[in-house]
Write the structure tokens for this entry.
Amino acid sequence: MKVIQIEHLQKAFQNNIILKDLRLSLEEGECFGCLGPSGAGKTTLVRIMIGQLDIDQGRCLVFGEDSRHLSARVYEKTGLVLDEQGLYERMSVYDNLKIFADIHRIEDERITEVLKKVDLLDEADKKACRLSKGMRQRLVLARALLHRPRLLFLDEPTSALDPVSRHLIHHLLLTLKQQQVSIFLTTHNMQEAALLCDRIGLLHEGSMIEEGRIDDIIEKYHNHLALHIELTDHRHLNLDAQKDADDICHYLKEGKILKIHSNEPTLEDIFKKLTGKRLNL
Amino acid sequence: MKNTTIILKKQIKDTINNKAILIQFLLFPIMSAIMTFSIQTEGMPYDYFIKMFACMYIGMAPIVIASGIISEEKESGALRMLMYSNVKAKEYIAGIALYIVGGCFLGCVCMAVMASYSMTQMIVFLGVSLIGMLISVMIGSIIGICASSQMKAASWSIPVMIIFSFIPMIASFNETIRHIGFFFYTQQISEMIASLEPASFQSVNMLLLIVYFISSLALFIRVYKTHLIRF
Ligand SMILES: Nc1ncnc2c1ncn2[C@@H]1O[C@H](COP(=O)(O)OP(=O)(O)OP(=O)(O)O)[C@@H](O)[C@H]1O
Ligand SMILES: [Mg+2]
């Protein structure tokens, strides 16, 4: 079954079209990464999927239900890490989770369990307002995982975090993937996408300009004929395997070649090629 | 129902660390205790300050607290997280209202005990206060739900609460304001508390209070339906 299915989705804010004719799907246990520069519409897309924003055209189904009228059944299976964290600042880390554990009727042991997972057990009695940025984000993730969701929406979960927190979150997400939890992730960060995602989509000005497995996308834009050659005299040359075949043969015969690479593009290169803009500001 | 209790429990826990709200709950009961025990002059009724501060308490505390809590939780996104965890908007509002009315009611009980009222007087005092608090909580919630931020909520609730809570006090010195005050629920409450004798209540007081209650309830439901359901 498809966990998320979006067809011909369109969304505008006051005549300003933010998302255009979007199509997207997420299979069970899959991790989809939505990459795009600031203002591309990533957060808007997430807010539509969780039912916080209306749709102008098209449809968006989450666990088979219209995102505008999600039922309790869907909420129970969904965990959220949004850009607004919604923590109770004056309450302790533990109490922040306790409220949600009570609402979900979850035993208290589970709170300790998730605190251990996000490495916040030692801070359990600290007030939320006293936490560092990385700790706060880990607390938000702990809250999202408390009720053992089957689908996670993560809106830039690691942006501007310290490397330790980021690494911990990545590690945790990889474990969740192994447990067949479906993940929808937005990010600016290509390394993150490459590490976590099975499939990605490049969002630009509201359109999905490319979508698929990362390897496939790179393969698609990979020009196998383009070679990068470093000569023994340390000159660098970009040559075409067909057109410059004679030259290449010549260098080979003379034994002048030090290194030879195929020019594989990065996602960043592909994004730049397609839009003329950089992905990561 | 379970969720309402959870919200209530959360609020009670939060109170200890939330000085702004704690002050609202305690200010008027403490003020009236200080004034009553320190200032007693000839010909002044023993419960003069208690009655005066009770009216201000009812017209002020629930409005400030309700608008403050709701707008804060809305702005921080905490309310959204609650709703994604299947807390219904009505359960949330019920929890907040129960907390505020419960807290202020305790304050009023303390004030009534201080005034050593008879049983009937006590019932009338608390009953009238309760209706007033409910109206104030609804007004505060309307402000909290409509305001887009905590700052905005404060800038709306301050003038509203000043008008409602000070009108009855000023009305006792000025005839014109007493006429204007006729249209404010706090004035009706003040007049009913002043006598504390059900027999001497004017039906117009009761009627206006009921009208006020119903119209604030209607407005509250309208705002709730248009603004809160779709957070
Ligand atoms: N409530 C709103 N009203 C009007 N315009 C909005 C609203 N929310 C978002 N927008 C506009 O929609 C566009 C996309 O915003 P969105 O927050 O989805 O971008 P994003 O991809 O998440 O960016 P970032 O990476 O910076 O978080 C922006 O141009 C923004 O100004
Ligand atoms: Mg965003």
User: Anything to note?
Assistant: Chain A has a mean pLDDT of 91. The pocket of magnesium ion (ligand 2) is lined by residues A 42-43, 83, 155-156 (CB under 6 Å).
